[in-house]
Amino acid sequence: KMQFSLGWFLDPIIRGEYPAVMVEFAGDHLPVFSRKESSVLKGSYDLFMLNHYTSNLITPCDSIESNTPCEDLSPGWFRDMAIDSRLPPGARLSSVNEHGEHNCEWFGGYPEGYLETIRWMHRKDVHAEILLTENGWC
């Protein structure tokens, strides 16, 4: 999933192209960079800035571990990713309202996921500075 959510933006400015998995699953939806555009994009950053709210465990849809068949995924971005996504065990769920419902059902605080996201970004370019700009809670 990080290839689709972060790699979508990082890979073009680091490598001048989209992540291979995005091209494989969603290539017909992606704009194609000309050689010149790719060259201009590549290395066009000073630092990485990260807003991080939640982490998810993923499995390929239709795998034995998956809870969601591929055909049940929403068309577009979710189906292009071809993954089943859920909160990891131990994630802290969001606050609840006066009716006992979670304010943000998609949110689960998971510090290990935040750290792994930082490490993943660092592996993309070990010399780039990473500025942690936001880590919210709802």
TrEMBL record:
Pfam families: Glyco_hydro_1. Keywords: Glycosidase, Hydrolase. GO terms for molecular function: beta-glucosidase activity. InterPro entries: GH (IPR017853), Glyco_hydro_1 (IPR001360). The keyword Hydrolase applies. GO terms for biological process: carbohydrate metabolic process. The keyword Hydrolase applies. Belongs to the glycosyl hydrolase 1 family. This is Beta-glucosidase. It comes from Proboscia inermis.
